[in-house]
Amino acid sequence: MYCLGLISGTSVDSIDAALVKITGKELDLNIELLSGINHDYPDKLRATILEVAGGKPLSMEAYAQLDEAIALCFVEAVDKIKQNHPNIELIGSHGQTVYHRPPNQENIGYTLQLGRGEIIANLTGITTVNNFRVADIAAGGQGAPLVSKIDAYLLSDPEKYRCVQNIGGIGNVTYLPAKKEDNWQKKVMGWDTGPGNMLIDLAVQKFSNGEKNYDKNGEWAAQGNPYLELIEKWLKHDFFQQPPPKSTGRELFGADYLEQCWQDAQKYNLPETDFLATITDLTAASIAHNYQQFIKHPIDEILLCGGGSLNLYLKKRIQAHFPGSTAVRTTDEVGMNSDFKEAIAFAILAYWRYVSKLPGNLPQVTGAKQERLLGDIHYPL
After folding, report:
1. Of the candidates 96, 132, 135, which has an alpha carbon nearest to the alpha carbon of residue 114?
2. pLDDT at 324 over 90
3. What are phi and psi of 134, to 5 degrees?
4. Most CB within 10 Å of its CB: which of 20, 184, 224, 357?
């Protein structure tokens, strides 16, 4: 079956679209990536999304307009793929997260992804599955991360203990024990590790007066040196101490948090390059901190994916926090495209929902009370 996965992450850098050919049954799948593109939002729409995700209030009319505008951009991404691949049979659209509140003692969890699935289905003529996270939250889960079940069945190794580390705006990990272990599936773990690219991107935008959105290859940060005393201070944040299951987003590690970090740095008179190196190393150090706190078995490989896997300085800093026998690689090196892995995941989740009728969540990862079918199905007119 030809399935198209769509997602725009918390960085709001683009809509990722990945067309895959899925063969096999239930959990025993073969995945072939046929096409992948990045479709940019118009600048004005991207700015609005970032404002809303940062807490700007909206009227209901403005909310509806934003929801529809995002859906139409997702449709544009589908149309681009369809030009060369008109045989798409199913779409799995994550949409655009603008708000995420994990459950806690005071609140039931809540998550909101915009980009209406019914619009995508009707305008493309293709059955569309969206709204993947709410069923897990309704079952008491975090609604994230949702890729861990896919990681388990596509990237586990008979002998090696792996961590699949996605670095988007927020970082998340799937811990994969070696398949030689008894009941290895039950030992799979996953959670959000904290900031990924988000703080780095915000710092670059701040220092470049908006002329740059990200640090290409980490070249700017590589000119500085991380200030370890600041990183140790920041790692005392409550989120880093909280055991899994846990998830986070722009609400916790967004512009306000970066400003707090910048104020913390003022007493040390750090130049911009050193601050960028330090905020980059916070992502690397927080990944290492999470693994050391919550994973008991030595890790043979860390497989990076997402936009952060292209940041060579960040990759170097992650390796520096694992100086022993742990190899830091990318998922490309084991046969899974690192740029489009998240989009591929939502194509598979849609397939599991629509074709296989299989639950898409792992309760030990999200904290849900039970497995659930994920996603709402929208049929075209």
Report:
1. 96
2. no
3. -70, -30
4. 20
Q: Is the pLDDT of residue 159 over 90?
A: yes
Q: Is 280 exposed, middle or buried (0-12, 13-18, 19+ CB in 10 A)?
A: buried
Annotation: binding site for ATP: 9-16
Q: What is the pLDDT of residues 255-295, one digit of tens each?
A: 999 999 999 999 999 999 999 999 999 999 999 999 999 99
Cis check for the bond before 245: say yes or no (omega within 30 of 0). Answer: yes
Task: For residue 69, name the pLDDT band (cuts at 50, 70, 90).
Answer: very high
Residues 341, 339: Cα–Cα separation, whole Å: 6
| Closest residue by Cα to residue 375 from 361, 267, 206 | 361
pLDDT of residue 297: 95
Kindly list the structural domains of the chain, giving each domain's residue range(s) and its CATH number in brackets, ordered by start.
Answer: 2-145+340-378 (3.30.420.40), 156-334 (3.30.420.40)
Q: Are 2 and 351 in contact (CB under 8 A)?
A: no
- How large is the average pLDDT for residues 305-327? 95
pLDDT of the residue at 378: 98
Q: Which residues are annotated as a binding site?
A: 9-16
Tell me the three-class secondary structure of the chain, residue by residue: CEEEEEEECCCCCCEEEEEEEEEEECCEEEEEEEEEEEECCCHHHHHHHHHHHCCCCCCHHHHHHHHHHHHHHHHHHHHHHHCCCCCCCEEEEEEEEEEEECCCCCCCCEEEEECCHHHHHHHHCCCEEECCCHHHHHCCCCCCCCCHHHHHHHHCCCCCCEEEEEECCEEEEEEECCCCCCCHHHHCEEEEEEECCHHHHHHHHHHCCCCCCCCHHHCCHHHCCCCHHHHHHHCCCHHHHCCCCCCCCCCCCCHHHHHHHHHHHHCCCCCHHHHHHHHHHHHHHHHHHHHHHHCCCCCCEEEEECHHHHCHHHHHHHHHCCCCCCEEEEHHHHCCCCCCHHHHHHHHHHHHHHHHCCCCCCHHHHCCCCCCCCCEEECCC
Q: How many residues does the chain have?
A: 381
Per the CB < 8 A criterion, the answer to whether 93 and 132 are in contact is no
pLDDT at 104 over 90: no
